[in-house]
Amino acid sequence: MDKSDAKKLLGGEFSFFFDNIDPIIQELKLEKNAKILDVGTGEGKMAITLALKNYRVLTGELESDESQYAKRDWLGSAKKAEVDHLITYTPFNAEKMPFENGSFDIVFISGALHHIKDGQAAFNESVRVIKTNGKICIFEPNLHAIGIIRGRKFPDHPDPVDPRDFNHVKKLSLEIKKTSFYDAYIFQKGV
Ligand SMILES: C[S@@+](CC[C@H](N)C(=O)[O-])C[C@H]1O[C@@H](n2cnc3c(N)ncnc32)[C@H](O)[C@@H]1O
Known about the structure:
Elements: H1 3-10, H2 12-28, E1 36-39, H3 45-52, E2 57-60, H4 74-80, E3 87-89, E4 104-110, H5 119-129, E5 130-141, H6 143-152, E6 173-178, E7 182-188
Parallel strand pairs: 1-2, 1-4, 2-3, 4-5
Antiparallel strand pairs: 5-7, 6-7
Helix pairs in contact: 1-2, 2-3
The protein binds S-adenosylmethionine (SAM).
């Protein structure tokens, strides 16, 4: 399906997300067959965005998560956009991932790091599961965005976190890009 048709079908919130995130994904210049992990499936906005750009994605969230942020109908949305065949779901705990060292070219954590109890463990695990020269791309809503999320959708939404706070030990190189809604922290694992 054409991206603009998918955006129309999935609605304004998805469309806004896609337009915010797409330029950053383009700048990452991922290989066509890149091994991609999406941490924290939620509504599936990140996974569906990647799939609409023809990437295969492995995504998952904490099986025991009974919060309003989990077990959303991401599959229904993926089917609507006709990209469900590109997305594989497996439940996992980001704090202790069931993946081998160096399994992925990139890990995305979009709007999810501030929901993970032990963010440091999730960051360390992300570093472990990416290849040498692999990347971790973390999208955290900015303070303006948090106000909108709390006002329109989730009044008790937690504060964003600063992923740099988790990089003191591993000291990965970092590039920060800002959109109107998200701050993107792009870490790269050196040799
Ligand atoms: C707001 S949602 C993320 C939005 C989603 N990335 C999207 O694009 O629509 C937060 C997600 O973090 C997940 N999460 C929270 N703690 C987790 C953990 N320890 N391991 C894996 N996922 C976790 C929740 O289950 C939920 O899926």
